[in-house]
Amino acid sequence: MTGSAAALAVRAAELRAQIAQHDYRYHVLDDPEIPDAEYDRLVQELLALEREHPELVTPDSPSQRVGARPSAAFATIEHRIPMLSLDNGFSDEDLIAFDSRIREKLGGESEVVYSAEPKIDGLAVSVTWEDGRLVRAATRGDGTRGEDVTANVRTIRSVPLQLRAGAPRKLEARGEVFMPLAGFERMNRQADARGERTFVNPRNAAAGALRQLDPRISATRPLELFFYSVGELDGPDLPQRHSEMLARLRDWGLRTCPEIAVVQGVEGCLEYYRRIGARRAQLGYQIDGVVYKVDRIGDQHRLGFVSRAPRWALAHKFPADEAVTTVRDVEFQVGRTGALTPVARLVPVFVGGVTVSNATLHNMDEVARKDVRVGDAVVVRRAGDVIPEVLRVLPERRPADAQPVVLPERCPVCGSAVVREEEGAIARCTGDYACSAQRKERLRHFASRRAMDVEGLGDKLIDQLVECGLVNSPADLYTLEVAQLEGLDRMGRKSAEKLVAALQRSKDTRLGRFLFALGIRDVGESTAAALASHFGALESLQAADAPTIQEVPDVGPVVAAHVVEFFANPLNLDVLARLRASGVHWPDQPRTAPEKPPLAGLTFVITGALQSLSRAEAEEQLRELGARAAGSVSAKTSYLVAGADAGSKLAKATALGVPVIDEQALRQVLETKRPPT
Ligand code: IVH
After folding, report:
1. Distance, CA 256 to ligand 1 centroid (Å)?
2. Is the whole model's pTM more than 0.70, yes or no?
3. Which CATH architecture has domain 322-420?
4. What span, in angstroms and rounded, lies between the C-alpha atoms of 290 and 295?
């Protein structure tokens, strides 16, 4: 080796060590030391070095995450120590019984210490490192034999290819592969945009990604892995407690779930169950319960196993968020913009911890797609705080007299004609201000917290105000007087005064909030804010035509048309004038200069495998900068991005004289937000 070759080898090793350290801080400690761009720079430097000097590549290099070619089928891997399952508990009583069994078997201990962990809803895998190197990964399979998914697990960025110093000679760690919700949603959006099949839930998506025969595809899927136990282990002085074992795994570079805690006795377990249950929607990944494990490993050995599950652990499941019930009727609700939503009236059923008797069917297209009929047995889902929905029909249980759902020709509330938009699934009541349902919904929206924020103007009160004719439009709200309110149901003098004061306070607002409050179709909070900062004043927006409105970032022709339509309606203009006359006001807002996105007018085509991000991610980022991302090369292509193993597209681009850039240049475009130089 020449002197400079040796220096390059040293540099490559240095970069690998630094990258591994940053991976550990980022994925395991959740405490990155350097910004992402700086990390990317290190990776790029190493990749460039390895490209120039392939002899410097080592099996644990970050460039080797996606190495293997697709395989025809997975090989089988035997689990020397079987991968077990867990006993399930569904109630506090089940937990209490579990804890008493344990205390009794351990000789009457008064309080057992448990490791309490979220039960991640993914797939169990076993990963083995030998002499610090990741050598094998397998699915659980039947518990004794699983599939060899080494190539795919290697693509998961939070799984170290090389363990940190101090790791045992041989380590087999077990954990759960899952797909975080954000990644799942992004992946489905992209699949949808390409007209491809979407996944029903993150678990299926994770299973699909893990069992991909082509690891280059797995590499583009946002998988993660939390480790929760060890299988085979060959090292001295092992810890006495499961919680210490998990800490050891973290020291060696493995990621564990940050929510894991050590708790005392049944009380501690229950408190943990409630705490995690309450935070479930914020975790960013799906869990279906919590797992309690006796923390002392010696005690685990004493307790042993029954058939396929350990006696020392219990999965305490959350109430199922899906259940089967019967559709009694389908009714139509009229929303703020007149949209008719079919709602299934159900035989009440306990699901997701509450009793559900109504579930949305979204729109008539969904009713047709799912073929829901009155009388059908259906699966309903209620996940977190979301509105319960009908997932699917059980056709084998359909009664002979099940009735199809028919869209009414007239609005069930005001009797106005119902029209179905040409291209859309949505049917609307044409009653507008004449429809009391639309009036009520508009008022609810107007008064809501993120709009005018009128405290104390609840649903029941709005219903009363509309029904007794006191309020028809938002402008009428500001004419209300204490004396008028006092007579209403459940309204004393005090509450009436409070409401009038709250209305008074709400007059002091901001233009963005006010625009949002008006409830213009498709103008949500962020569009309202964008319109406010672009136009600065209500009058300018009112005077603008559709093309001018479309200059606002993210505003397309449909939204622009709705805005124009809103301000063309004399009824709306009257409401606006009255709102301003009653003192609704906002401070002047500085205008932002209209901006053209930096890559507007450019078309990129990406081909071959990218190392540092997936093709879909790259395309998404390019689109965010205003570029078009196309699937095939033509004379109109501005740039071809050629990753590893680029094939026919590269040949075509060269033939057409389309400029070709590499991944590094692409990253530069994305970072500097400028066209390639
Ligand atoms: S411990 C012998 N801990 O749940 C102990 N499992 O229903 C075996 N799971 O196959 C597993 N989160 O896929 C354990 N914190 C956790 C878990 C967990 C999810 C899964 C795992 C297992 C299944 C059993």
Report:
1. 13
2. no
3. Beta Barrel (2.40)
4. 15
